[in-house]
Amino acid sequence: MNITSAKFEISNTDVAKCPAVCRHEYAFIGRSNVGKSSLINMLTGRKSLAMTSSKPGKTTLINHFLINDQWYIVDLPGYGYAQRSKEMQRQIKKIIEDYILERQQMTCLFVLVDSRHDPQKIDLEFMEWLGENSVPFAIVFTKLDKLSSAAAKKQTEKYRNTLLESWESLPPIFYTSSADMRGRNELLDYIEELNQL
Ligand code: GDP
Questions:
Q1: How does the average pLDDT of the chain come out, rounded?
Q2: What Gene Ontology terms describe what this protein does at the molecular function level (predicted)?
Q3: Mutational test site, ligand 1, from 76, 141, 178, 180, max ligand atoms within 8 Å of CB
Q4: CA of 38 to the centre of ligand 1 (A)
Q5: Could you give the 3-state DSSP secondary structure of residue 90?
Q6: Which residue's C-alpha comes closest to atom 2 of ligand 1?
Q7: Is residue 53 very low, low, confident or very high in pLDDT (cuts 50, 70, 90)?
Q8: Which atom of ligand 1 is nearest to the CA of 142?
Q9: So what's the ipTM on this one?
Q10: 6-195 is classed in which CATH architecture?
Q11: Which residue's CA is the nearest one to ligand 1's atom 15?
Q12: The whole model's pTM is what?
């Protein structure tokens, strides 16, 4: 799919204030610093549509971007940033959970995972929660350019095997790098497919 336009539409902390119009919506989430903003910029071909930052934990809002005047990319707050206060963590968890459970037009949630790290409890528990709530999701490995192809294979296999300890089958999995644009076509093709449904 070609991205011909990508426009920021609205930021907020309340799912009730998200755009009222019903379009397919694809949300992106992951631990702070996982590479979410970079991935959104890479997918849309815009340098700074989503705010990238070397300081983790910056985005605490639900950000809607209208793509090709047809569908939305939604940048959700990063989770699991320990330096946030307990109260802030609680508020962000609520924003995320309300959005995921209430937003009917969310067609797929892309859960980003840093390919360099071993499976993390917080991500595994989050995916478990998605499963319990029948939320459609896919896993996106990020920053693959930082690993050799052998290391990438080993790490991602380890991840899949860990998931298979508790899941009967795996969700769709994408292998990406915002640095070399790996996985861009695969992700956009998948979105295009879902847009037809
Ligand atoms: P976010 O907090 O999840 O939105 O993460 P960002 O997109 O702001 O990225 C966090 C840091 O990781 C930044 O320093 C990015 O330049 C870097 N980064 C993100 N994606 C990639 C990638 O695919 N490859 C490499 N080498 N660095 C990346």
A1: 92
A2: GTP binding; metal ion binding
A3: 178
A4: 5
A5: helix
A6: 33
A7: low
A8: 23
A9: 0.99
A10: 3-Layer(aba) Sandwich (3.40)
A11: 35
A12: 0.95
